[in-house]
Amino acid sequence: MNPEPFLQLDRVIHEKGRLAIMSMLAASPELSFTELRDALAMTDGNLTTHIRALQEAGYVAVAKSFQNRRPLTTCSLTAAGRKAFTGYINLLERIVQQNRPK
Amino acid sequence: MESNWAAENLQTIRTLMERSAVYRRALAPIMLFAGALGVVAAGIGLGCHLNSMRAFGTLWLGTAIVVVAGTLLIARRQAFKDREPFWSPPTRRVAQALLPPLTAGMCLGVVFTSADLDDGFTVLLALLWVLFYGCGLHAAGFFAPRGVKLLGWAFIACACLLLLRAVITNSDLNLKAHWLMGFFFGGLHLAYGAYLYLTGKGKNAA
Q1: Which residues of B fall within a CB distance of 8 Å from A93?
Q2: How crowded is residue B109: how many other Cβ atoms within 10 Å of its Cβ?
Q3: CATH number of A4-95: 1.10.3720.10, 1.10.10.10, 3.40.50.720, 3.40.50.300?
């Protein structure tokens, strides 16, 4: 078995919670903090921590605004985030292909 | 096995991406359009005393056809404006979820109307329509904002309570079918459409 693709996996994305956030954001132009929290059944603190990690990696952009005088936090994938996510999926597909019985 | 978790991860990603791509296109205008037509149809029914089963069924089946056609046109126009495909995966999933209960309700309406049953059956038909439509909204709610599912529950709960009340008290509901239709298909749609506009949740992505 060739371990190379496994070693190339992006460690920032390769965490259950962060992978879920990236997957949700990859399919939507942007999602609010509440939408992400409800869809992924995460606590506020857990989601904030993961989003901060993704933001620090430059994968997720966070915008804060007000809607009807209430604060609204929206998240979206950056170009770098989309590229990293695509790369991650390609690697997973390679691993699956590599281990498929011939 | 390494490939097992990789395949599982891919499946998880696919599921999450599907769940994320909820239908939001032109939801507020669609709700307001359906609600306005519901109110107008109820007004016509009450004003013109269309109380026979045939007249009631024809009016509301006709309204339903106009609403469905109008809804598709609004969604298509919005997709065209946003330069997005009209028949996107979320649109397709919502349509597939709505189709069985709407077809069943339509079929039931045609049967009741063709049979030209007693006028008292118009209330029963109205409640059955409310029930079927609620089931449709609830199913579509899995691929749309959460409010759609809640709206579906509101339709289902009200229809069930009114039907149960009729059975328990062993009496007719002493309600005008047009009022019922106007309230549910007019009022509730308008209320939800207004809520979407006011809260800014009428985003257009599909």
Answers
A1: 6, 10
A2: 21
A3: 1.10.10.10
